[in-house]
Specification:
Mean pLDDT: 97
Number of domains: 1
Bound molecules: iron/sulfur cluster
CATH class: Alpha Beta
Strand content: 15-25%
Distance between the termini: 26 Å
Largest sheet: 4 strands, mixed
Radius of gyration: 16 Å
CATH architecture: Alpha-Beta Barrel
Oligomer: single chain
Order of helices and strands: EEEEEEEHEHEHE
CATH superfamily: Aldolase class I
Number of helices: 3
Low-confidence stretches: none
Structural class: alpha/beta
Number of strands: 10
CATH topology: TIM Barrel
Strand order of the largest sheet: 6-7-9-10
Length: about 160
């Protein structure tokens, strides 16, 4: 049974067992799931200016994480080795939101102010961003979402 994904305006109609255009969401048993949930392809303590934010805590650092997949196909993408691939095409490390927030807290003394969801398009897996950002905020950390903004109103 084909199921329509309601996350972004592509509105992919995905066959059972297949992934959508972004390669991050799959039709599993008639339900669209975020297959890249908690699967990191990149992890680094970056300068906030690299996000690139200029007037947001200048001079600080932010723990930056990303997964795989994207709902755009820009020919100039600098991260195409992770943004344009799907599961099994790139190495991933699985992490829970609790573990990620603990790591972010542990990096505070090195200037870390929070967590940035970046590298691939984070909102194709908005569930992971939502869960981690909620927890991070409770712990006094900042959240930065580096997104192309191509998302439907309801998940936004
Ligand atoms: S998020 Fe992915 S699967 Fe869903 S509509 Fe957009 S491109 Fe298709």
């Amino acid at each position: 049974m084909r199921v329509e994904c309601e996350i972004c305006p592509h509105r992919c109609k995905i066959e059972e067992g297949h992934v959508g255009l972004c390669k991050g969401r799959r039709n599993k048993g008639g339900e669209i799931i975020s297959e890249n949930y908690g699967k990191l392809t990149g992890y680094a303590l970056d300068p906030i200016e690299k996000k690139p934010l200029y007037h947001f805590y200048p001079g600080s650092k932010i723990l930056s994480v990303g997964s795989y997949g994207c709902n755009l196909n820009c020919p100039f993408c600098q991260n195409c080795d992770i943004s344009m691939v799907g599961a099994g095409e790139v190495d991933t490390a699985v992490i829970s939101c609790e573990e990620l927030v603990e790591k972010a807290l542990g990096l505070r003394e090195r200037g870390n102010i929070g967590i940035a969801y970046t590298y691939n398009e984070p909102l194709i897996g908005y569930e992971f961003v939502r869960d981690c950002a909620t927890l991070a905020k409770e712990k006094g950390l900042k959240n930065v979402v580096v997104t192309n903004g191509y998302i439907c109103e309801k998940p936004l």
